[in-house]
Amino acid sequence: MSPLVSIVTPSFNSVAYIERTIQSIHGQGYPRIEHVVMDGGSTDGTQEIIAKHREKFAHVESGPDSGMYDAIDRGFRHTTGEIMTWLNSDDEWFPGTLKTVVRIFREFPDVEWITSGFPSAIDAEGATIATSRHYGFTRLASRQGEYLSDCEWYSNGFIQQESTFWRRSLWERAGSRLDTSLKLAGDYELWSRFFDHAPLWQVEVPLGAFRRRAGQLSQVSHDRYIEEARRVFERDGGRAPSKWSSGLRVGFRRHAPTKLRQLAFRLGFAHPRSFIGYHWHEDRWMKWTC
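RESULT FIELD:
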C-alpha cells in the first residue's frame, strides 16, 4: 500500500491564495493524503473557502494561536502519516511533486529527509519568477552558517521549506515538535535538529514554490528571521568560517574534478554531499555522493 502523506497547512486571512494551495495539494493525483488545516481565526473569507473544501481535510481548527509554528505543531498532533511536511496557505507544489517524493522514500528506505536542489518562487498570479541551484547539504555546512539565508559571506543558499519532506521516524527522533517560541525561523531550527540525526538528500528536480507577494511576513520581518536563525545557529554550536576558507570551500565543491573531490573525502578534508536524481537511460532514480 502507498504510504500516507501528512500535510499541515497553517492559515490566517489568506483568502486570495488558500484555494490555490488546496488545489495544489489535492490535485497531485496521489490517493493517500492526510491534510490538516489550522486557521488562526481568519475574518476575510478564508474560513468560507476552507468550509467549501471541508471533505478533503482530515482535521480543521479555527481560532487564536500563538503563531504559525504553534499552529503547525498542534496540527501535526492530529496526523499519523509515514511522510510529513507542511505547506503554507499561499505556497504551492508543482504537478507530480507528491508522486516523486513518495517514489523516492519507497525506493530508498535509508533516506529520511529530502529537499529540492532547485528552490523556486512564484508571484501573486502563480507565474514562476525565480529558481536557484544548490550544491548539496551537510551537517557541517549547517554548523558553518551556509544555510543562513541572505546573511554574510558564508551563506550559500537555504533549505526551502516548501520543498522539504521527512519520515515520521526522523520527526520522532528529533523530538516530535517544532520550537513554538520562535515566530519566524522555526523551520531553520527544525532542520538544525534533523541534521543531528540524518543526512539531508538533495533531489535534482523542483518540488515546491514559495509565493512572493506584497506585505508577506517573510519580507517585512526578514531581519527578525535572520536574528532568530542566528540564535539557533549559535545555540547549536555554529561557527562561521573565515572568508578565505568559505570561498575556497565553495570553489572546490563547484569546480574541482571528481577524482580530486573523492580523494579529499577519503582524507577527511571535505565532506561529501548526498544527491538523488533520475537516471534517464536506466529509467530509475539513483543516489550518489560527491
